[in-house]
Amino acid sequence: MASIQFSTPINAIILDIEGTIAPITFVKDVLFPYFLKTVPKTLSQLKYPISSSSQDPIELIVSNFSETITQSQESLTNHINDLVSKDIKDSTLKSLQGYIWQEGYESGELKAPIYADGISNLKKWTSKGKKVYIYSSGSIKAQKLLFKYVDINNETHDLNGYLSGYFDITTSGFKFEPSSYSNILKDIAFNPDETLFLSDNVKEVKAALDNNINSLIVIREGNAPLSDEDLKVSKTITSFYQLDI
Ligand SMILES: [Mg+2]
Hints:
Family: Belongs to the HAD-like hydrolase superfamily. MasA/MtnC family.
Oligomer: single chain
Radius of gyration: 20 Å
Number of strands: 8
EC number: 3.1.3.77
Cofactor: Mg(2+)
Bound molecules: magnesium ion
Main location: cytoplasm
Binding site for substrate: 136-137, 175
Strand order of the largest sheet: 5-2-1-6-7-8
């Protein structure tokens, strides 16, 4: 593996999550199936019709659906199945998923698969005084949850102590927009030439490069293949160990 050097010292690293420090398949192959497996039991334990003045946290979440939906377990189940099968981005569904995933992490049934080279370099970089930030389209709450329950040899470890900040689309803007990266630079107060952004997504890498941030495309198993055009955008790495920083 060729190592990648930089002309100025790198003091801040901004990381994408899926396809970069964690497998891109985690959400699709682990989190979504876990939700589908768990939700029937969850819904069977609710009191119907759902009351919006309920004290139960899950009843409170689903009470944001209309009353015709929450009048019975059957109609609620059908509605959730419909949203999931059509991949509709519904905020109530997202809240329900977030709640169920949190319980899954807390019970130990879910563990976050952060790549080993990611874990060891997080530790190395922070021990050298560098700051590491996360920028993901998943919510900051979801980001912190993921890094709180990292699978290391089948035990969960909280890696949030190695992270100096979190950014998502609500704090900084969409990941393909160059302005999002200038927003982040302002927030972290580092110059672009001492900052490194890593992502599997070429459009994100381009947007960061537009701000003169050092930026590399990360190639991991399961990521979308890169075209010849993509490969002209920046250098690629397959492991964080290739970074000479
Ligand atoms: Mg990604």
